[in-house]
Design brief:
Helix content: 55-70%
Radius of gyration: 16 Å
Shape: elongated
Distance between the termini: 24 Å
Strand content: under 5%
Number of helices: 5
Largest sheet: 2 strands, parallel
Number of domains: 1
Mean pLDDT: 80
Structural class: mainly alpha
Order of helices and strands: HEHEHHH
């Protein structure tokens, strides 16, 4: 996706039928599967669903932390690094999103 090439978040547009929570869940799940980082929400009833779909799981967060720690250790020890730029970018996004969500006590949906 173009957003990944330019290191920006890809946020899917709003789902206008705010009373159709199953439809919102289905559409948000599809956009997450396509690589979107989030989705606009128009109604408070959509926030928890968006957070459930787009927020990294604990396992993803821990894997991202491990990847970043390994990269930092390799850099600091001047060990050769393999090409992990995509993995590094993904790990960074997950750690930043999860850390921000935990710091504010909120999820990652943009309301």
């Amino acid at each position: 996706m173009a957003a990944r090439m330019h290191d920006v978040q890809a946020i899917d547009g709003p789902y206008l039928q705010i009373k159709d929570v199953d439809g919102f869940r289905r559409v948000a799940g599809r956009s997450a599967a396509l690589g979107f980082d989030g989705k606009w929400v128009l109604h408070p009833g959509q926030i928890d669903i968006a957070n459930d779909i787009y927020a990294p799981s604990q396992a993803e967060f821990e894997r991202a932390e491990d990847i970043l720690a390994a990269l930092i250790e390799a850099r600091d020890n001047t060990q050769p690094l393999w090409d992990v730029s995509a993995t590094n970018a993904t790990a960074t996004r997950i750690v930043v999103a999860a850390t921000a969500a935990r710091a504010t006590g909120e999820g990652t949906a943009h309301a």
